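FORM 7B - TANDEM STRUCTURE REPORT

SECTION 1: FIRST PROTEIN
SEQUENCE AND C-ALPHA CELLS:
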Amino acid sequence: MSLIARLWSVGLTLSLIVVACASAPTLSEDAKAVQRVDALIVSLADAYRGRAVDRLMAGFAPSVSGNEQLRHTAEGVFARFDQIELTIVVDRMHFEGNTATVFLHWDGRWRSDEKDPLLRQGTARFVVAAGSPAMITEVIGENPFGTVPDASAQS
C-alpha cells in the first residue's frame, strides 16, 4: 500500500472516530423517564430547602390526598425555622408503564435561632406519574415535605 493510501486510510479512520465521538447518545424512553423522575425529586428537595412552597406544590398532582394540608404544613415549617437542611437518597425506582414507584429515605435538620437543631429521618415511597412533567400522585410512609418537627423532642 502506498504512503498516500495509508495516510488517506488513517485520516478517514480518525475522521470517523471524531464524528462517532462527537454525536450525543440517544436516550431510550425509559432512560428519559428515569431522568424526569430523578429531576422531580431533586427539584422538590431544592424547593423545600429554598422555602418555595409554590415550586414544591407544583411537583404534586392536584389529586394527591392532603394537598392543602401539605401546603399548610410546609408554610408553617418555613415560618418557624430559620434553617432547613434536607437530604433525600433514592434507594430504587420501579417502573410499571408510565408510573414509577420511588423508594427513598431522607434526613432533615431544622434550626431556629439560638436553639439546638431538630433532627428527623424517615422513609417514603413516592408514586410518580413519569410523564412530562413528572408529578407525585401518592406518598406512602413519611413524607419529608409534610413532616412537622416536634419542638418537644429537641436535642
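SECTION 2: SECOND PROTEIN
SEQUENCE AND C-ALPHA CELLS:
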Amino acid sequence: MVNDEIIRESLKGILDPELGLNIVDLGLVYDIAIQDGDVQIAFTLTAMGCPIGPMISEQIQETVMALPGVKSVNAELTFNPPWDPSRMSDEFREELGFG
C-alpha cells in the first residue's frame, strides 16, 4: 500500500534543474494526502516567477503514478506559504551555505 514515506522517497528522484537538488530535501513538497489510491500533493518553487512549475508538476504526476496502488495524482502548485531556506533539510542547508 502506498504511503507518505514511499511517495516522498520516490519524489527524491525529481531534481530542481537550477540547483540540481531533489525537491523533497529542498523543502518544496508541502503536503501529501492519500485516500483510496488518490494522491494529492501540494508543492512550491523556490521563487514565484520560476518557469519550471509545469515541468515539476508533470514529473510529480509521472513519478507517483508509477507507484503500486496509486489510482490518480493531483500535483498542486502553491506559494502559500512562500518557500524559504529554512524548509530545506539540514544537509542541504549546510551544503548551500545557509547552515
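SECTION 3: OBSERVATIONS ON SECOND PROTEIN
The chain has a mean pLDDT of 93.
The domain at 4-95 is CATH 3.30.300.130 (GMP Synthetase; Chain A, domain 3).

SECTION 4: SIGNATURE
Preparer initials: ____
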